[in-house]
């Protein structure tokens, strides 16, 4: 069985709920980046030992949170010695509006993965884009690059839509399936 780690920062709990759904689908370990942008004791070792790293951050002002960026910058130590080369990578994000510039966040995560020599996995999910589609359908936000969720700015993490969380769970499942094929 593959060893998958979901490393994420969550400012208000929404991205944490997505991380939990991704981890559930992937059978992965959760690794939270704290409010100061740091990993817990042993966090870097968890990432080094992983077959796949799934990264998550809320989209703030069109990009990852500063806490996630601090983690990303600190990953240059692993980059310098190519510790994460050929690992499977994937990413997810949440913002308050339907677009919310979430794709910019996923592009950032993708670029970080590519700098580490990683192999990127997208959602593999068809978008729910027919006239009959409902906001609570799987992949209603319509992302191929990674899982996206949209949660109104005045909604709690408990009010996230089941369709967005199911999208995250199915995304995690795909990451696990691809990782098993590529990493054995």
From TrEMBL:
Q: Which residues form the Flavodoxin-like domain?
A: 4-149
UniProt keyword Protein biosynthesis present? no
Output the Gene Ontology terms for molecular function. Answer: electron transfer activity; FMN binding; NAD(P)H dehydrogenase (quinone) activity
Q: Which domain of life is it from?
A: Bacteria
Task: Give the matching PROSITE patterns.
Answer: FLAVODOXIN (PS00201), FLAVODOXIN_LIKE (PS50902)
- This protein's name: Flavoprotein WrbA
Higher taxonomy: Bacteria, Pseudomonadati, Pseudomonadota, Betaproteobacteria, Burkholderiales
Q: Which cofactor does it need?
A: FMN
Query: Does Glycoprotein show up as a keyword for this record?
Result: no
């Amino acid at each position: 069985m593959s060893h998958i780690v979901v490393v994420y920062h969550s400012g208000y709990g929404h991205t944490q709920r997505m991380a939990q759904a991704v981890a559930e689908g992937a059978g992965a370990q959760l690794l939270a980046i704290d409010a100061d942008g740091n990993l817990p004791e042993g966090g870097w070792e968890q990432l080094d030992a992983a077959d796949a790293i799934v990264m998550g951050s809320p989209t703030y002002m069109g990009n990852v949170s500063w806490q996630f960026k601090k983690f990303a910058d600190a990953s240059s130590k692993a980059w310098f010695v190519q510790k994460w080369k050929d690992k499977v990578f994937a990413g997810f994000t949440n913002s308050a509006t339907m677009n919310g510039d979430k794709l910019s966040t996923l592009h950032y995560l993708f670029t970080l993965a590519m700098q580490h020599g990683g192999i990127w996995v997208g959602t593999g999910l068809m978008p729910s884009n027919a006239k009959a589609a409902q906001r609570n359908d799987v992949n209603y936000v319509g992302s191929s690059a990674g899982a996206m969720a949209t949660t109104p700015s005045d909604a709690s993490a408990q009010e996230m839509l089941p369709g967005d969380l199911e999208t995250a769970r199915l995304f995690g499942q795909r990451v696990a399936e691809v990782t098993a094929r590529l990493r054995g």
